[in-house]
Structure formats: structure tokens, C-alpha cells
């Protein structure tokens, strides 16, 4: 039976690790329910794994930003629709525009290329471990490890000078904060784009061995605006996501000592551990969104043209129809098929990079600090319930 | 078993290579799928089926 949720997307968590309980209750009622959006639109919420997969793979559901009814009311209280994607912002485009941009980048993020980066990422991780040790026996793991490592890696890949990171890190955080108004969030993105656009211009005269220089030389005749759009997308998606998986993932493992012990006893479980943390934590906490381009029947209901569908990746990842004992963290299970990178042609472009960063990051952290522990009670860890990407704002840890 | 892959549909996620690098590869140029072993040995059948099921773009078909 399909019900209507008139109170908006469930967002209240009972504890740091589980998605809102209400999502589970909704999924138990039906994997698809009607959802009243903040602007009054009567759309849909999908919480089941199979339907999530189905909709995300179906090109009759659009990713175009200007078609979506907004799911979240931002700081100013106005449920405004977003404008159409600016040039290069292909995450919010459909084929053939999306395909054209994405194909220019997919060769840069293959499994093989990312594996070749392993040794270098390992060095970066060890540099941060050393800096933590040099600083004493305690640190904020977010500031010392989780945020700088993926930031440095994506900066190097793109050709963004890492010592200019303050220009984008602050604005990225601002844009992702839910209490930032839609207008201010857009302005923050524009400032990051100005920074990248300026960088593109510099690279036109002085190219380097990096993705931005590669796009300039691609022969596709991309304009500064297009390359800047692609660059912003990769920069923001490339550091905030992995950073939060490293921070929240560490808290999760420290809070599940039996699972951490299993990983320590058998380091070959690291690949599984990363997939399971991705499944279990679903840091894209509000999931993703699509709008029907025509009438489509899904799970026995008719989604009409123009109706917006909210897809709860977190609920899909805890669906007992797909995963046994879904509420349990189990680093020995195969979590393959989780939806944390999405599904369909928009599936995360940087997922193989994220995997390598997490595998090396967690493995090195727990090897180098075998008695790593929280320096505050778990209730005092500040959670990112106020951000589009979930995680921890800070993670005070200590070792001896 | 026979594996077919449609590079035009492929979105270069690398899920197939992650699942079975002996059977699948990605083009250096645009990251799209290359089938290294169109008729793999039985020991690879389960992984090939999983790769087809996981492919986000539905670009891989497994016959038999």
C-alpha cells in the first residue's frame, strides 16, 4: 500500500550510524510512497533497493536540475527550483550533453589508472600520519587526515595548487551547509568557479600534466566556462565525499570494536570493509533525485511526466530484500550492489579513486596507530546532520 | 558462456574491471569496456554474471 508523506523527507536520526528510522518504516510499508515536496508538489519517495536501481537506470528519468522540485528547504526558507546546469556541470544534464562531457573524463578515472596512483597515495597518507605523530598523541582526525588527504589528491589530479585550497574549501563547506540560503550557496559555487576559470586561463599558456590541461588539449574546443564547470564538479565531489567517509568510517570502526578487530586480524578484508562502510553509512544522506520525462510505471504505480522522485540511497542500502541483516555492520560480507555511488550512467565517476583512497587510508591509519581511540565520548562527536554530505565535523582521537 | 559488451552504452564506471579484471578491461582512451575474454572459463562465470548485473549502464550481456 502506498501512503503519502506530508511532512517532507524524514531527516531525524536516532544515532550517528543509522539512517532515520522513519525511512525503514516507510520501506516496510512500501518501497515507493508519495512524498509532498516543500513547494507543495506531490512527488515520490523510493526506499527499496530494486526500485532505486530501476529508476536510476531508466533514461526516462531526468537528472536535469531545472526539472526537479527541490527536496530540501535551504536556509532562507524558500523552496526554489535550481537553474539549468551551467556549462560543464554534467551531473545535472541528460544525454547527449552529459555523455559528451563525461566521456572526456572517464579515461582519467579507470581502475588501472587509479591502481597506478596507489603508491603515491600511500606516500601522501604516510606523510599525514607522520605529521600527526610529530604533533603529539592526539588530533582532530578530520583536520589532520580525513580532509587533507583527498583534497591533496584531487588537487594534484586536476592541477589545482594545493596551497590555494583555502579558496575552495571554505566555499565548499558553505555551499553544502543546509542553513546556507540557496542564493548564498550558488554564490559560493560561483566563487569556486571563478578560481578554477582563472586557473584554466593560466593553464592555456602554461599547461601541466593534469586533467584541466588535458581537457584544454582534448581537441573538443571546450571553452573556459565549460572546463571551469567540470573542474568545480570534480573538485567538490572529489574531496568532501571521501573526506567524510574517512572521518565517519573511522568513528564507525572505533565504535564497532569486533569489526575493527576482524579487519586487523585479516588485513585482506580491507576491500570488503570499504564497500561495507559505503553501504552502511550512505553519506549522501538525502540521496539523489530524478524527474520523469514521460509517464512511467514503477513498482506498480504510475509516475507521471513532470513528477519528481526522491531516491533514498540510505534506505536502499538497508533493504533486507537485497542485504541479509542490513542493519548490522559486517566487514566480512559482500556489500557489492550497494547504491552509495548511485546507479545508471551518472554513477560516480570518481568511485575507483575513492576506493583506493579509503583502502589505503583506513589500512594505514589502523596499522600505524594500533591503539587509536576516541578522545571524547561518542555523544560529543559533532555530526554533520546539517550538511548535504553526512559525516563528522570533527573527530577528536588519541593514541599512545 | 559468451559475453557481449556495448561500448557505446558504457559510462566507464569500472565496475566490471573491479569485479573481474581477468575478463574485463577499460580503454585507455575513454574508459569504456573491453572484454578481454569473450568466452571465459567456468571459474569466471559467476564473476562475469555479477559484472553484468552490477553494470550501471546495462552495457554487458552474458549469454549461456
Describe the structure.
The complex is a heterodimer of chains A (400) and B (64). Chain A has 400 residues and is an alpha+beta fold. Chain A has one domain: Orthogonal Bundle (Cytochrome p450). Chain A has 15 helices and eleven strands. Chain A has helices spanning 21-29, 49-57, 97-106, 111-116, 118-134, 141-146, 148-158, 166-176, 182-205, 211-216, 224-255, 257-265, 270-281, 313-316, 351-368; strands spanning 4-5, 32-36, 42-46, 61-62, 138-140, 288-292, 296-298, 301-303, 308-311, 373-374, 396-398. Chain A has a six-stranded mixed β-sheet. In chain A, helix 5 (118-134) packs across helix 7 (148-158), helix 7 runs antiparallel to helix 11 (224-255) and helix 9 packs across helix 11. Chain A is globular and about 60 Å long. Chain A starts with a strand and ends with a strand. Chain B has 64 residues and is α+β, with helices and mostly antiparallel strands. Chain B is built from two helices and four strands, in the order βαββαβ. Chain B has helices spanning 15-19, 45-54, and strands at residues 2-5, 24-26, 33-35, 60-63. In chain B, strands 1-4 form a two-stranded antiparallel sheet. The longest helix of chain B has 10 residues, at 45-54. The A-B interface holds A 56-57, 102-104, 106-112, 336-337, 341-349, 351-352, 355 and B 11-15, 17-19, 21, 25-32, 50, 53-54, 56-58.
Amino acid at each position: 500500500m502506498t501512503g503519502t508523506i506530508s511532512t517532507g523527507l524524514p531527516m531525524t536520526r536516532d544515532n550517528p550510524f543509522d539512517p532515520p528510522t522513519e525511512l525503514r518504516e516507510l520501506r516496510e510499508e512500501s518501497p515507493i510512497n508519495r512524498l509532498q515536496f516543500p513547494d507543495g508538489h506531490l512527488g515520490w519517495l523510493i526506499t527499496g533497493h530494486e526500485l532505486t536501481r530501476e529508476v536510476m537506470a531508466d533514461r526516462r528519468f531526468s537528472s536535469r536540475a531545472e526539472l526537479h522540485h527541490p527536496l530540501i528547504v535551504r536556509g532562507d526558507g524558500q523552496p526554489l527550483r535550481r537553474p539549468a546546469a551551467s556549462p560543464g556541470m554534467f551531473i545535472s544534464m541528460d544525454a547527449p550533453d552529459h555523455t559528451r562531457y563525461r566521456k572526456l573524463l572517464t579515461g582519467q578515472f579507470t581502475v588501472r589508472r587509479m591502481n597506478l596512483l596507489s603508491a603515491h597515495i600511500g606516500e601522501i597518507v604516510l606523510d599525514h600520519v607522520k605529521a600527526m605523530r610529530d604533533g603529539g598523541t592526539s588530533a582532530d582526525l578530520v583536520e589532520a587526515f580525513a580532509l587533507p588527504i583527498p583534497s591533496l589528491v584531487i588537487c594534484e589530479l586536476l592541477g589545482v595548487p594545493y596551497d590555494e585550497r583555502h579558496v575552495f574549501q571554505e566555499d565548499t563547506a558553505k555551499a553544502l551547509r543546509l542553513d546556507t540560503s540557496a542564493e548564498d550557496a550558488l554564490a559560493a559555487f560561483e566563487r569556486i568557479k571563478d578560481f578554477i576559470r582563472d586557473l584554466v586561463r593560466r593553464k592555456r599558456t602554461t599547461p601541466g600534466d593534469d586533467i584541466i590541461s588535458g581537457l584544454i588539449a582534448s581537441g573538443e574546443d571546450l571553452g573556459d566556462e565549460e572546463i571551469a564547470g567540470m573542474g568545480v564538479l570534480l573538485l567538490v565531489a572529489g574531496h568532501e565525499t571521501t573526506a567524510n567517509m574517512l572521518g565517519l568510517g573511522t568513528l564507525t570502526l572505533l565504535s564497532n570494536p569486533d569489526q575493527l578487530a576482524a579487519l586487523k586480524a585479516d588485513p585482506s578484508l580491507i576491500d570488503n570493509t570499504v564497500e561495507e562502510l559505503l553501504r552502511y553509512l550512505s553519506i549522501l544522506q538525502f540521496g539523489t533525485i530524478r524527474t520523469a520525462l514521460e509517464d512511467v510505471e514503477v513498482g506498480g504505480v504510475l509516475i507521471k511526466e513532470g513528477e519528481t522522485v526522491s531516491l533514498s540511497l540510505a534506505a536502499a542500502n538497508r533493504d533486507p530484500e537485497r542485504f541479509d541483516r542490513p542493519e548490522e555492520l559486517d566487514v566480512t560480507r559482500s556489500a557489492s550492489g550497494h547504491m552509495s555511488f548511485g546507479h545508471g550512467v551518472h554513477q560516480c565517476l570518481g568511485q575507483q579513486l575513492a576506493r583506493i583512497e579509503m583502502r589505503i587510508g583506513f589500512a594505514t591509519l589502523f596499522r600505524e596507530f594500533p591503539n587509536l581511540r576516541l578522545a571524547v565520548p561518542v555523544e560529543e562527536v559533532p555530526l554533520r546532520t546539517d550538511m548535504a554530505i553526512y559525516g563528522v565535523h570533527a573527530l577528536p582521537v588519541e593514541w599512545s | 558462456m559468451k559475453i557481449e559488451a556495448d561500448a557505446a552504452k558504457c559510462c566507464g564506471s569500472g565496475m566490471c574491471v573491479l569485479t573481474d579484471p581477468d575478463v574485463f578491461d577499460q580503454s585507455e582512451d575513454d574508459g569504456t569496456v573491453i572484454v578481454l575474454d569473450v568466452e571465459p572459463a567456468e571459474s569466471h562465470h559467476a564473476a562475469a554474471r555479477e559484472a553484468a548485473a552490477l553494470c550501471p549502464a546495462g552495457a554487458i550481456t552474458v549469454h549461456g
